[in-house]
Design brief:
alpha/beta, four-stranded parallel sheet, about 40% helix
């Protein structure tokens, strides 16, 4: 684990398969510690900055609680307090904060996150960008391991928008760890071929298949994975996205089509699964998963949400811990 000290988490491309599995195993261990009410305080006297330029529920609270559990000092910066490039450049802000803090969690544009990591001189953790969501996919791996007992040769069917940041992050870990990912999406929302080519490697043990056929795509899946169709900043495209993705709503029939009665359902959340939100009431048909599946016995969505805290704690311990 010492080999991860001082390193940033930007996409998970920068970590090996063994290092990713080490982070997952560490997360499992710290989850057990918390359940037993043991707090070793491995981040004592560490100072951590949180900068969120986009809304956050799970990621922000996960960093806050994980830092508190490990006795770190945490400072949350409102967006208006750090105006990148308005009257001070990103690289100058990064170099200042890097002199003061031991680690920085940043949610925003991916190019900005990369620049911040380059200039800060301390670990920077990508708390979500338009292209990647590495802390989420670590929690996904932990949830799969807890539910299925292993990570090798697991079949995952992602059903929905193939151009989401979650698909990119799932492709990275699938190829590295030997998972078999099927992206089930309309052709208009398939991952860009340039991105698939960039992430491909002849030595990777995993596989990625893209298909527009739901029944074919989910057959034999151990995990059916969903994501919200309208991400932050895409609200103006809601009608078009609903029209394209409507046939890809995850329902009981979708789960049955896996031909695997033990297949679990996962979702990075937020999920639209009923009409309890203003957005769902405003746009009928926008729900990406049925309430029956979301609330069903094989749903693991809230385990995923909790595991965000444990995997984020593991990342901080591994990269800046004592």
């Amino acid at each position: 684990m010492n080999l991860m000290k001082g390193r940033s988490l930007l996409t998970l491309e920068e970590f090996t398969a063994n290092e990713i599995e080490t982070l997952v195993d560490l997360a499992v261990a710290v989850k057990a510690e918390k359940k037993e009410r043991r707090f070793p305080e491995r981040l004592k006297h560490r100072n951590i900055a949180l900068i969120f330029l986009k809304p956050s529920c799970r990621t922000r609270t996960s960093f806050v609680v994980a830092a508190a559990d490990e006795a770190a000092n945490l400072q949350v910066f409102p967006e208006e307090d750090i105006r990148f490039g308005v009257k001070e450049s990103t690289k100058d802000i990064a170099r200042v904060l890097g002199r003061i803090f031991d680690g920085i969690a940043l949610r925003g544009d991916h190019v900005l996150i990369q620049e911040f990591a380059h200039y800060s001189g301390v670990p920077v953790w990508n708390a979500l960008s338009e292209d990647y969501h590495p802390t989420q996919v670590l929690a996904d791996l932990m949830t799969i391991k807890e539910s299925l007992g292993c990570l090798k040769d697991v079949n995952i069917a992602f059903v929905g928008d193939g151009q989401s940041n979650m698909v990119t992050s799932l492709i990275i870990v699938a190829r590295k760890l030997g998972l078999h990912l099927r992206v089930v999406s309309p052709r208009s929302r398939w991952p860009l071929q340039s991105k698939l080519d960039k992430l491909a490697s002849r030595d990777d043990p995993g596989s990625v298949v893209v298909t527009e056929h739901v029944t074919e795509g989910v057959r034999g899946a151990d995990v059916v994975y969903g994501d919200i169709w309208v991400s932050m900043g895409q609200e103006q495209d809601t009608t078009a996205l609903v029209q394209a993705l409507g046939p890809y709503k995850i329902t009981h029939a979708t789960m049955q089509a896996t031909c695997n009665p033990a297949a679990i359902f996962m979702h990075c959340m937020p999920a639209l699964h009923d009409d309890d939100t203003e957005f769902a009431r405003k746009y009928p048909g926008v729900c990406d998963v049925s309430n029956e599946v979301f609330e069903g016995p094989l749903s693991r969505v809230f385990e995923q949400s909790e595991n965000r805290m444990h995997t984020i704690k593991a990342v901080m311990i591994a990269t800046i811990g004592g």
